[in-house]
Amino acid sequence: MQARVANDILIADMVGQSNILIVDDQLALLRSLQALLQINGYRVDLATSGSEAITKLQDVDYQLLLLDLKMPGIDGIEVLEFARQAELDLEIIVVSGDTTFSSVKDAMRLGAYDFIRKPYRPEELLTAVGSAIADYQQERQVLHSEDSLNESERLHRFIVNNSPDFIYTLDVQGVFTYVNDVVEDMLGYKRHELLGKHFSTIIHPNNAAEIHNFFSDKRAGDQATTNTEMRLLITRPLDQVECFETYELMVELNAIGMYEEDENGKKIFTGILGCARDITDRKHSEVDISYQAYHDLLTQLPNRMLFDDRLNQAFAHANRSGKKFALLFMDLDRFKLINDTLGHVMGDLVLQRVSERIFGCLRAEDTLARFGGDEFCLLLPDTPSKESVAAVAEKILKAVRKSFSINNHELYLSLSLGIAIYPDAGKTGESLPQVQVCSRQLSHQVLTV
Predict the structure, then answer these.
(1) pLDDT higher at 381 or 11
(2) Strands (E), 337-389
(3) What fold is seen in the domain 295-443?
(4) If you placed Cys at 257, which of 165, 219, 387, 421 could pair as Cys (CB 3.0 to 4.6 Å)?
(5) What does DSSP assign to residue 202?
(6) How far apart are the first and last CA of the chain?
């Protein structure tokens, strides 16, 4: 019952929206047909000649044309030819007493929807009119749907190809079936170079395990891949060289499984839809931020935070191995005088040059840190004896005592230095700072070991 009511409403809507033009040189027939159609809810215009019909067809959008063939002047066949040449969007029913084979053939050849012979029964004509209007509405709905779909696909293609992300689809074997235009700028590959290739083609060897896991699941629901960082191989054409060099690009990968339902309603896995976002700049920023958090920006040496971490590692290693390590606490003598007389810019240059001199005296495994101002701290892991520590300290003192030539100024500096050796000076992180205070007290006399 509800379906029937809905269908009646749809028919009523189509009728109410339908404009019909009736063309016939017999005015009485026109009036009769107009009354019949208006009673059934149609909007109707009349034309008593072919020329008048053409004029109205140019000015008004009609959905249906009821056309007589035999008329003086411009006849129905000529009106049909005009409608065809003008590509008018309407249906045409020929209503004529001329039912010869040639007339019917010409009318149908020129696009007539139906042919009704005069005289006709009212219900026959209403049925033909209703069918023509229904087909017109249905065809226009299909065209509108196709236009909407085409527009949606055009918009989708525009969005996908103008996305900053690399968007792709893979089949069930992990082979590329689609890649957007971004792949050329992001990875250096032409689209045709990747289509038909396996996804692992562009994966960095270091991510082989992640790729295995990536394809072992079908990415459904909670198994969809989100925010997975991965390295992709890229190619960049070298200037003036007919070859390619391989690089790597860090991306953030998101992927989800694609499914279709079979005739039984069962979901069948058909592939993967994914996108990869270039996060190179973000990773560089993270590295920069991390570096700044653990390093002194003036001297580029580790700061107190990183030094404490290295010290904790030294404690752990010494406890396991039974070996010793040493801490050297250093500061420049009369550094305040340099700042006050030559300025802070010169003071910064002095700190940089001093740190370079000290760093040049060290092994790769040693850690030199700046604690602030003119204070430095040095961690010497795996020190075999006090004599080896003393040798390093003497080397540093001699290096700093050599003259510095900075901005046309020749400077002679000295360094105060104190030493604490684990476990002799303390066995915990809490005890070593006490040794530092004691050593600093001795360092005012420029302690040499």
Answers:
(1) 381
(2) 367-372, 375-383
(3) Alpha-Beta Plaits (3.30.70)
(4) 219
(5) G
(6) 107
